[in-house]
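Sanity check

After download, print the first record. It should look like this:
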Amino acid sequence: MNAGCLVLACSFLVGASVESKPSQPIKPPCTPGFSQNFYTVILSRDLLHGQRILKVKFEDCQRGREVGFVTNDPNFGVRHDGMVYAVQDVSNLSEPVQFMVTAKGLHEPRVWETTVKLALAGHPHPLALSKAGITEMLSRVWDSQPKVIKFSRKHQRGSAANGLRRQKRDWVIPPINVPENSRGPFPHLLVRIRSDQDKDVGIRYSITGAGADQPPSGIYNIDPISGNMFVTQPLDREDRASFHLRAHAVDMNGNQVENPIDLYIYVIDMNDNRPEFQNQVYNGSVAEGSKPGSSVMQVTATDSDDSTTANGMVRYRILSQTPHSPIPNMFTINSETGDIVTVAAGLDREKVSQYTIIVQATDMEGNLNFGLSNTATALISINDINDNPPELTVRTFSGEVPENKVNVVVTNLTVVDRDQPHSPNWNAVYRIVSGDPTGHFTIRTNPITNEGMLTVVKPVDFEMNRAFMLTVVVSNQAHLASGIQSSLQSTAGVTISVQDVNEPPVFPVNPKVIRFEEGVPAGTTLTVFAAQDPDHFIHQIVRYSKLSDPANWLKINRTNGQITTMALLDRESIFVKNNVYEATFLAFDNGSPPASGTGTLQIYLIDVNDNAPVLIPREAQVCDRARPNSRINITAADADADPNVGPFVFELPSFPASVRRNWTISRLNGDYAQLKLRISYLEASVYEIPVIVSDSGNPPLSNRSTIRVKVCPCDDNGDCSATGAVAAAGLGTGAIIAILISIIILLSMVLLFVVWMKRREKERQAKPLLIDPEDDVRDNILKYDEEGGGEEDQDYDLSQLQQPESLDHIINKPAGVRRVDERPAIAESQYPVRSSLPHPGDIGDFINDGLRAADNDPTAPPYDSLLVFDYEGTGSTAGSVSSLNSISSGDQDYDYLNDWGPRFKKLADLYGGGDDD
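Expected structure tokens:
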């Protein structure tokens, strides 16, 4: 085998060939057989006995048939799974080897065949991939094609009884290899197709399939007379790697002369594609301090060339590393897989947090002379581990805090940590290990600055502790990495000074509970409710005052806090809740500034028998005849508490004697008794029955209560009838008749009054007006339904609408003009008082008397259309337009009315001394 053949053999397909896509969208039915009719494999010269070569794939269309494989070459064998292997060493092979693999069903006589072609690789003098070398290689590929392909012999037809009998082919037609990217010239002759019968009859040749008469059509054609088959254009393996055509031979009449033969055309790959990285930038990470060999990341590049040849075999290498610290080659890469791993120790995030690596991928198995290359960037981040313990900046901190204050930051503890900020390896956790046994302080971590805020959570007392000495330890939220020791700088002391402040007086017992019987007299000393000043180192005076005393029963001594009573303590008061009366007091000192504290005094009042029982109910109803249900159940209510309440004792008094004669009382239990008739019949009426009720106090208290009992006739159901209810109300027959007569008289008086009012209205309308209608100034007055207090309505003072209870403010009012709506201060005329029930004959006299009184009334207006209203208003700042109660002495001069025009002529005549009408 020469050098050119070696290069060509290295470009053969390994394994399954690529079939063209079907032109129809519908998938053809499955046909049992080998997945390929032809296999081509490149072998290494060091292939030993028993080593695997390739695996042929058999498709049984999921029928589960058992198939056995055999070869027709004793140098090669095939296992039951289709794996082809070498029976002996093949290093002595000098030419390609071709043999057939046959598949035969174990339970059926049917057989299937495929062809395997093997070639050796690794010639010691490879052809340089120069322009001349490529041209020579392509020419050898063209020259290596079979010159003539003949149709196989036609099947011979036997007797009808024997049926058809298949004959074995003479040879297997090898595939046709065509290099991609060929420069021609085109069309280029590939093979010649001929039939053995072309000497006897005229033959016409044709080819069908994808690439010929099917898309992509026109790539291959054939001379129908000579049978020469041509390729018409350059091929691209990455676009289509193989073609499957069929050659046909027919006579001049179009009749088939030969069975069609299958032509397999394989496009030989050339190295025309660079490796392409899936990403231009890869991001990976590795923990600092990782050991050599630790995995970091993987980069991947793909090559569109044939991956079974050197054209598509990619290899990786690292071109550069930035920075070079601590050494330039901290990482290495697996040349075949692209896995990047660490080479040396010494990764330290605090020194270098990220590395930038340039990775190169080269095909042709990494041959830099022949292969094509591409590059990508790998960014490797160094993950932080907790290899730096936190260190406090100083060994001693100090601060001060006022006493009795909480949530106050005493001091901030500063710390330094070189690990990654705001991570568990950096976050500080502070602990107080000594100096605070009672838990007055805690340390919270500032999430932004990582400082420790020493805070008071429990009030401190200057009188108890003037200073604190704390020991503080700081650590990380995450544990230190293995092998890292804690630093001595993680411990510090904190000195805290307590500031004295003026504290309010404190009542030792608060609230203070005392017990007293109710009813103690005023001036009784109950207790001493004194407070203590916590400021022992400062002499201050404490004074007391009362803050809350709802019933005003108590007072407190300002100096010593002694509590005494000012009134009787009553347990039954509304200010006592659950027998307890509560009052609060204030204690304050004379400090600067003064401070005060409150104390609560609770007086538990012990009940005494100071309330007599009261009968319940106070009214009842029974039938006038003794019946089983004519009974009244009675009880008593007592404001006292046990044991000064029930059981109660009920009894009837001996006076008057009719009570015990008509009624009897019997005890049902300790709280209830029953009152019922002693006699069989009692006249219907209302009876007031006295009952004496006594409680169980020591001594007992008694009360004579009266129960009002209505005795009435009852129906069969024991209910009072309507007539009986009226009779029981205490009204006799005479009284009822008197009521009816009174109602009739009242109705008659109302009717007569209405008739008189109508007649009066007619007479008033018939009487001529005192003023000429033409001169009547009142015809322009519009009457509205509104009443008010004059100018004072502007202030909306509703008190002007109320009648004053006293006339002193009017009598003492300074002289001047007053309003007519004021009540006159002079003695008013006395109108005749109408009796409550006048006789109808006196109505006329009553009216005449009232008319005479109105005519002689000096306070009435000069016309008889007076409307009398209730008194409203207290006066107007404008004064009155009336001439009454004038401050001027003598007669009033009304001559100015003559100047007001004709409309006021009549008024001027009336008041100005004119003639009376």
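If your output differs, re-run the checksum step. Summary of this record's structure: The first strand starts at residue 33 and ends at 34.
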